[in-house]
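RETRY 2/3 - previous attempt timed out on the joint model. Re-submitting the same 229-residue input unchanged.
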Amino acid sequence: EIVMTQSPATLSVSPGERATLSCRASQSISSNLAWYQQKPGQAPRLLIYGASTRATGIPARFSGSGSGTDFTLTISSLQSEDFAVYYCQQSNNWPPLTFGGGSKVEIK
Amino acid sequence: QVQLVESGGGVVQPGGSLRLSCAASGFTFSSYGMHWVRQAPGKGLEWVAFIQSDGTNKYYADSVKGRFTISRDNSKNTLYLQMNSLRGEDTAVYYCAKPYSTSPRPHFDSWGQGTLVTVSS
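RETRY 2/3 succeeded.
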């Protein structure tokens, strides 16, 4: 099973600042990585797939990078609606599909 | 527009059973493999099960293997999850999730609203 490790667990950021979240896979997953955003009481929302491709309707301030084992989600200028929990998910080697433990972006 | 609507959640005693349903619309259901993903209260996301578009192949997380059964009825555009021998650690919101494409590397562009399963005496 591929283990996905996200860091930091919590990131405190002021609106307008940049946020950088990390996701590491326990073995190479090529570019088969997705990022999701989840707000309280809501289902996850797909942000990025293929490590760097924005999903439909996702603003350009969200960007993904990386390949192999190390990946990054960057939010260039945080808006109020971006404060949420973010999850990465690998699909290179499954079953099982595996998710990271999540990173919470909170208002500083 | 894709719509996934789960139902069937509730409170059940340990050792009990429950069947979840997910009614799908807005896409060609019979063309997509479908998944169940769950989230325990205050915790992260956990993939639970997958069923191929025609129902021939099914995969499960180790944590539910032998207790849960995924199935589908393409004539009714509905996905199911039969959950038996339920345990406290099965308490979670259960989501059905549609992959973005028919790729063998799935990620999910559509999710239901979730249905809460609580296992408690």
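The interface with chain B takes residues 32, 34, 36, 38, 43-46, 49, 55-56, 87, 89, 91-92, 94-102 of chain A (CB under 8 Å). Closing ticket.
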